[in-house]
Amino acid sequence: DLISPHRTVMCTAVSTLADVVDLLMLHDRSAAAVVDGEGELVGIVTENDIMRAYSKGELPKACVGDWLRTDAAGLPEDALGAMTVQPSLSLMEAAALFREQASSLRHVLVRDDDGLLLGVLSSLDLARALCSSESQEGIASRLGNSTAADVMKPSAALVVCPPGATLREALERMDTSRQNSALVGDEGLSASSLVGMVTPRDALQAFVEHVPLSLEVGRWLNAVQNDWWLRTVERDASVQECAARMVDNSIHHLVVVSSDSVVGVLSSTDLARAVGSVERVIEGATPTED
Questions:
Q1: CA 152, CA 147: separation in Å to the nearest integer?
Q2: Bigger pLDDT: 73 or 273?
Q3: Of 134, 178, 132, 138, whose CA–CA distance to 158 is shortest?
Q4: 84-129 per-position pLDDT tens digit
Q5: Which secondary structure element, helix H or strand E, spans residue 178, and what is its range?
Q6: pLDDT in tens, 146-166
Q7: How far apart are CA 123 and CA 129, in angstroms?
Q8: What 8-state DSSP symbol labels residue 227?
Q9: Number of neighbouring beta carbons within 10 Å of residue 31
Q10: Are the beta carbons of 267 and 181 closer than 8 angstroms?
Q11: What is the mean pLDDT of the chain?
């Protein structure tokens, strides 16, 4: 039910990285399934793959199949088994899976009993589910009064780059730290001095527009992030409010602020893990004696 309204993006192994970027941006998705000449799934290419390829100097015309055979590929064919689920998986079970897997997990594959790919579920799809009228009441009751501050990554754990750093440096720091965002600003992390935030989706845009990796990241953000306020949220905003902000603007990350201080970053994966954490506690609870 979570993936049916959003068609899975698919491409062939002979497609170029630029082809994948065009598909992801056209369909507003963060991953594409890659198939061979017989239609068999041979891997998944995500925004993070594009970001990594871009930072390593790969050309937009590079072949997707060749990329999947490199050590830098995130989800080649032999890595797909561990992230495959059945279509009967519930929302809460899917959220728990995101919690239990590696910190960089943002996608799982949904396949039927015959191995047919039904779709690719992302953490933003789970955020959409948080906003749906059918599931919101049940999720809200489990999350209680959880706020952005309760589930965000605190400022001490964030990747921060000075405005004078190059775009390559910002992307490489995100990749080596296994984080999907980097704040750009001066030390102190005041909201008023923050230039912006770089995410894998921003890397897609830079890649397809042939932005030089040597360009100062602060200068580039000043030119492209005119909707910066849409990416911020107060620390006491509810989890449901944060999910709605992400879904309405099709973004995976929000900067969490308090007065003029940046106190953290909240991602769609953080939201998924918050739901998953609650589910795990509920499943592991034992009845109390009267």
A1: 9
A2: 73
A3: 178
A4: 888 888 777 777 777 766 555 678 888 888 888 888 888 778 777 7
A5: none
A6: 899 999 999 999 999 999 999
A7: 10
A8: T
A9: 24
A10: yes
A11: 84
The letter for the amino acid at 236 is D
> Residues 221-249, buried b or exposed e (16+ Cβ, 10 A)?
beeebeeeeebbbebebbbbbbbbbbbee
The DSSP symbol for 54 reads H
| Residues in a beta bridge with 46 | 31
Q: What is the C-alpha separation between 28 and 192, in angstroms, rounded?
A: 30
Nearest by Cα to 150 from 279, 273, 284: 273
Tokens encoding 25: 């941006």
How many CB atoms neighbour CB 207 within 10 A?
24
User: Which residues, in sequence order, are CB contacts of 37 under 8 Å at separation 6+?
Assistant: 12, 13
Percent pLDDT > 90 in the chain is: 47
Distance CA 277, CA 200 (A): 25
Q: What is Dmax (Cα atoms) for the chain?
A: 67
Reduced 3-state DSSP string for 56-102: CCCCCCCEHHHHHCCCCCCEEHHHCHHHEECCCCCHHHHHHHHHHCC
pTM of the model: 0.83
pLDDT at site 140: 55
CA-wise closest residue to 48 among 177, 194, 140, 154: 177
Cα dist from 16 to 12, 30, 281, whole Å: 9, 16, 44
Judge whether 235 and 256 are in contact, CB under 8 Å.
yes
Q: CB–CB of 98/273 below 8 Å? A: yes
Give the span between the Cα atoms of 250 and 124, in whole angstroms. 8
Interatomic CA distance for residues 261 and 257, integer angstroms: 6
Task: Write the DSSP string, 105-166.
Answer: --EEEEE-TT--EEEEEEHHHHHHHHHSHHHHHHHHHHHTT-BHHHHSEEGGGS-EE-TTSB
Residue 235 in 3-state DSSP? coil
